[in-house]
Amino acid sequence: MPDARRRRGAEAEALAAAYLKRKGYQILARNYRCRYGEIDLIAIDQGTLVFVEVRAKSSLHFGTPQESVGYKKQQKLREVARYYLANEWRRGSPCRFDVVAVQFDRESGEMKDLEHIENAF
After folding, report:
1. Among 3, 20, 79, 101, who pairs with 36 as Cys (CB 3.0-4.6 Å)?
2. Do 48 and 93 form a contact (C-beta atoms < 8 A)?
3. pLDDT-derived band of residue 45, with 50, 70 and 90 as boundaries?
4. What keywords are annotated for this sequence in UniProt (predicted)?
5. pTM for the whole thing?
6. Fold of the CATH domain 4-117
7. What is the mean pLDDT of the segment spanning 62-78?
8. Which helix (H) or strand (E) holds 53?
């Protein structure tokens, strides 16, 4: 089961990256890791540095993918972003946090919906 979830997460991240590229984003990093955690995608959108959390679900029984980015997750993402800004990004540019929520069909495994929330938190 963890392998299936990992594959689904990787698929969702690939779909999100392709979607953002079509919108004109430049993807700088995928699965950026540091001692504070991980950020799925880091991109540039018209001069703004964007930290992107990708969430995927195939069932809405416990809420939408968007709802799964709660306060604790947001705090963790902020810590990773602070680390990235201090150690990897030495330019002064605005930044924001986006969420890409991907819903898969439980039966077919195909993508049902993709929602991009800019400046999510």
Report:
1. 79
2. yes
3. very high
4. Endonuclease, Hydrolase, Nuclease
5. 0.90
6. Trna Endonuclease; Chain: A, domain 1 (3.40.1350)
7. 88
8. strand 48-57
Location of structure tokens 């680390």 = 83
Tokens of 46: 């018209």
Rounded Cα distance between 117 and 121, Å, is 9
Domain limits, the chain: 4-117
Quote the CA–CA distance of 30 and 106 in Å, as a whole number. Answer: 26
49 φ/ψ angles, rounded to the nearest 5 degrees:
-80, 125
- pLDDT at site 1: 53
d(CA 31, CA 26): 15
Is 12 strand, coil or helix?
helix
Beta bridge partners of 43: 27, 50
Laid out side by side, the sheet with 111-117 consists of 26-34, 37-45, 48-57, 95-104, 111-117
- Specify the pLDDT at position 103: 92
Give the Cα separation of 79 and 85 in Å (integer): 10
